[in-house]
Specification:
By secondary structure, the chain is α+β, with helices and mostly antiparallel strands. It has eight helices and six strands, in the order ββαβββααααβααα. α7 packs across α8.
Length: 177
């Protein structure tokens, strides 16, 4: 189960809205969706969480490139929403890497976060393996009062609530939950 929301900063504070990402296929499309929800090129946070498995944040400031943070890249890669966030650039891959494309075609039903087999620690990771743990720009909320270390320590179960609380908009986020 997923929860997705947009938090848009306005002159009157933060506004929250739930959003469906079923028609979004890329980070660029997600950024455009975020921009469309913000008045006057204000900051928009796209918040995604998957039932305690992982959470992701995308920060869009006007026409700037989106900034992305994912709490657990390996878990997010098994999710359709996570794949939107885990761009080749974020993963440090060449965009046309055939192994990566083959991996996306070989979805095995675990894309909803249910692990079929847990990868063993002693198995070598391939050159295109997605790293376990956090990935992306953990400082994307620093200028909003949430330090990098805090973002890195957030648990997926309550990360979005803690972020909204620190931003002073917990009530508006809970209203759309």
């Amino acid at each position: 189960m997923y929860f997705t929301a947009l938090l848009a900063r306005t002159d009157d504070g933060w506004e929250a809205s739930d959003t469906e990402l079923d028609d979004v296929e890329s980070l660029d499309e997600l950024a455009e969706l975020a921009r469309a929800s913000a008045p006057d090129d204000e900051t928009v946070l796209v918040c995604i969480e998957q039932e305690g498995a992982w959470f992701g944040l995308v920060r869009v400031d006007g026409e700037d490139d989106p900034r992305v943070f994912v709490s657990d890249a390996a878990r997010a890669m098994r999710s359709a929403y996570g794949e939107i966030l885990l761009t080749d650039e974020l993963l440090g891959r060449e965009p046309d890497d055939q192994d990566v494309l083959d991996q996306l075609v070989d979805l095995d039903g675990t894309e909803d976060g249910v692990e079929e087999d847990v990868e063993r620690e002693d198995e070598p990771a391939g050159p295109d393996a997605v790293p376990r743990g956090p990935l992306g720009d953990a400082s994307l909320l620093a200028d909003l009062g949430i330090e990098t270390e805090t973002v890195l320590k957030l648990a997926p179960d309550d990360a979005l609530s803690e972020i909204a609380d620190a931003l002073g908009c917990a009530d508006v986020l809970e209203a759309v939950r």
